[in-house]
Amino acid sequence: EISIGGREINTFIYFKIPGAAEDAELAKAIMSRNFRPSVIGPESWEGYVFSDMEIRIKESTDLYGAVLWPSAMVLCHFLETNRDKYNLTDKNVMELGAGTGLVTIVSSLLGAKVTSTDLPDLLGNLQYNVMRNTKGRCKYTPLVTELIWGQDVEQRFPRATHCFDYILAADVVYAHPYLEELMDTFDHLCQENTEILWAMRFRLDPENSFVDRFRQRFQLEELYNLPSLSIKLYRAWRKDRRTKDQGEAAA
Ligand SMILES: C[S@@+](CC[C@H](N)C(=O)[O-])C[C@H]1O[C@@H](n2cnc3c(N)ncnc32)[C@H](O)[C@@H]1O
Q: Is residue 234 in contact with ligand 1, taking CB distance under 6 Å?
């Protein structure tokens, strides 16, 4: 209570850091997707719930990409909770740097035809997780295959025959020496009507400069900003894409 001009008034001061409450709530909802097995069996796995399904992911600690990173959960949460706006049913989807496969699995459960890619050494564990969690549950069997950024991309995925509706990527930008190759791979795979959904974990400055360079080639929209996780989720598309009206006028 304070007094102004002799009148007692009730007041309270409310400091709101923009987005802080939303960030905390969303981050909590995303992280609550993860559970540990209640009984320890002979094989270790991490559990996730998406699309009302239990997903079991086997990790392997000897490889960077064989661990599941929070960005993958952010992207999966977005896909599941925005399935009306970003309807994956029957869509051609490519995942880059799929790691342990959660994004591929959730996209497949949501009805997409997924091409799941990573480095050769990762493919065994990736294939295992993808098969274990999608077999008999999905309209399309996901394809797990090698894609080393920047290497033989046109030979392996010719633009004339490989047109993707979505390119999905979670936590693919960090201190590795293939950032230019990754940029070129996005550029090659992203055609006129392709959309990129990219969950980006910010760790160091070079990652910020990647986003700036990415912005030179692609139009970028921020879908989530989660400072508590240091993650942003972006939607991107080609800068030189014609608008729907231009396309219709040219037809
Ligand atoms: C930080 S992990 C993220 C894995 C997964 N997307 C996730 O969020 O859990 C980065 C992934 O990028 C892959 N990767 C790194 N360099 C690559 C390259 N040059 N070509 C293809 N994949 C690469 C790694 O093998 C790994 O699976």
A: no
User: Which atom of ligand 1 sits closest to the CA of residue 103?
Assistant: 6
Q: Strand, coil or helix: what is 52?
A: coil
Among 71, 117, 167, 172, name the best residue to mutate to test ligand 1's pocket (greatest count of ligand atoms within 8 A of Cβ).
172
CA proximity to 104, closest of 75, 83, 84: 75
What is the pLDDT of the chain when averaged over all its residues? 88
pLDDT tens-digit profile of 173-187?
A: 998 899 999 999 999
User: pLDDT-based confidence at 64, cuts 50/70/90?
Assistant: low
Q: Judge contact between 223 and 241, C-beta under 8 A.
A: no
Domains of the chain (ranges plus CATH)? Answer: 17-250 (3.40.50.150)
Q: Is the CB of 97 under 6 A from ligand 1?
A: yes
3-class SS shares of the chain: helix, strand, coil, % to 5: 35, 25, 40
Question: Regarding predicted confidence, which is higher, 118 or 39?
Answer: 118
Other C-beta atoms lying within 10 Å of the C-beta of residue 27 = 20
Nearest-atom number in ligand 1 for the CA of 176 is 16
Q: Could you tell me the pTM of the whole model?
A: 0.89
Instruction: Specify the pairing of strand 166-170 against strand 92-96.
Output: parallel
CA-122 nearest atom, ligand 1: 25
CA gap 196, 179 in Å, rounded: 16
Going from the Cα of 101 to the center of ligand 1, the distance in angstroms, rounded, reads 11
